[in-house]
Amino acid sequence: MAATTINSADLESFQSVLRYSDRVLALCGAGLSAASGLPTFRGAGGIWRSHAAVQLATPEAFRENPGLVWHFYNYRRHMALGAKPNAAHYALVELARRKKGFLTLTQNVDGLSPRAGHDARKIKYLHGSLFDLKCSAFFCDYKETNNYVDPLVPALEIPKEVPQPTPSGTAGSSEAATASLEKALGITSNDMDISKSEVPLRDVSADELPHCPKCGNGLLRPGIVWFGEQLPSDTLKEVDKFVAESPKIDIMLVIGTSAAVYPAAGYVAIARDKGARVAVINVDRNDIPGGQYGMCRGDWFFQGDASTIIPELFK
Ligand SMILES: CC(C)NC(=O)[C@H](Cc1c[nH]c2ccccc12)NC(=O)[C@H](CCCC/N=C(/NCCC(=O)O)S[C@H]1O[C@H](COP(=O)(O)OP(=O)(O)OC[C@H]2O[C@@H](n3cnc4c(N)ncnc43)[C@H](O)[C@@H]2O)[C@@H](O)[C@H]1O)NC(=O)OCc1ccccc1
């Protein structure tokens, strides 16, 4: 990860503008949760068991192979449940508390912002949550939220390694390092890493998957916005209301996102049209909304890990 360098002049000018800002919008992506140990969407090349994550995150994939898609989401639920919010999540919570006109737009479905105590009135989950479920039958409106059952059904249990006896007294430092990392991630040490296609994973038939308790025959699916699906209309309305009520948006924060997915990425331009100065926080200078030429005069680019930079910026 690139060294985190904060240019003091940029830091000062950013903080002086933030101090007098009434209306602040923050667009967040997977980079916000990277320091919590969760892979980004395009991390590991965006591949999960030789499948492109963007392909698995579609209604077509669920229709074709609900067992595989549920393994994908059960794995991400398990990882997210084992992860902890990082300093960037908490700094956003604090800024939201301080600023009356503040709204976080998160593309993340990992539940770390609410676990950090983010004011629910000042955050919009553009792409849903791993811990919401809904019925996949088009005629059924069953929904449930905050379902933290892990695994969701026994058939989705993540297989465990059979711990290899290490010849007595030779437990090297690497085991200790792995053990402490796994402890940090809260994953039990012998979870097999099913994101790797070489790790055997049993096929799960539809009758072993969670079914809708209301209509009785629909399969339950993750309460997630898949590619090709419309974002929740009430969420879009509430974001538009925040923008419409803002005579001016002072700052648009773009935190740990490749800003390549729409309509989420479109809010950067909308904020600009409302006079916002854009502050991009990203480890990768190439990942700026609209690319290299996406930056305008008066914008800021802070290169480095969000969990280090964000607390510094909001001081
Ligand atoms: C790929 C893209 C071009 N496609 C789209 O945008 C599509 C199609 C489309 C619509 N409008 C368009 C306009 C132009 C082009 C295409 C479209 N959009 C849709 O399909 C949307 C729905 C999009 C939502 C899809 N669901 C997700 N997530 C839930 C699933 C799941 O999670 O499984 S999107 C998902 O991918 C995106 C991933 O982006 P990031 O979070 O930014 O992650 P990424 O890995 O890419 O980048 C990480 C960044 O962090 C940085 N980083 C890494 N570590 C750190 C660190 N430590 N610190 C700081 N930064 C860091 C990295 O450098 C990098 O920049 C997020 O949005 C994430 O939520 N729906 C829709 O348009 O419906 C229409 C419609 C209209 C009417 C009726 C019916 C339908």
Automatic annotation (TrEMBL):
Gene Ontology molecular function, alphabetical: histone deacetylase activity, NAD-dependent; metal ion binding; NAD+ binding; protein-malonyllysine demalonylase activity; protein-succinyllysine desuccinylase activity
Source organism, top-level taxon: Eukaryota
Active site per the UniProt annotation: H127
Residues engaged in binding Zn(2+): C135, C140, C212, C215
GO cellular component: nucleus
Gene3D superfamilies linked: SIR2/SIRT2 'Small Domain (3.30.1600.10), TPP-binding domain (3.40.50.1220)
Domain called Deacetylase sirtuin-type: residue spans: 4-315
Similarity comment text for this entry: Belongs to the sirtuin family. Class I subfamily.
PANTHER family registered for this protein in UniProt: NAD-DEPENDENT PROTEIN DEACYLASE SIRTUIN-5, MITOCHONDRIAL-RELATED
Name assigned to this protein: Deacetylase sirtuin-type domain-containing protein
Source organism of the structure: Ramalina farinacea
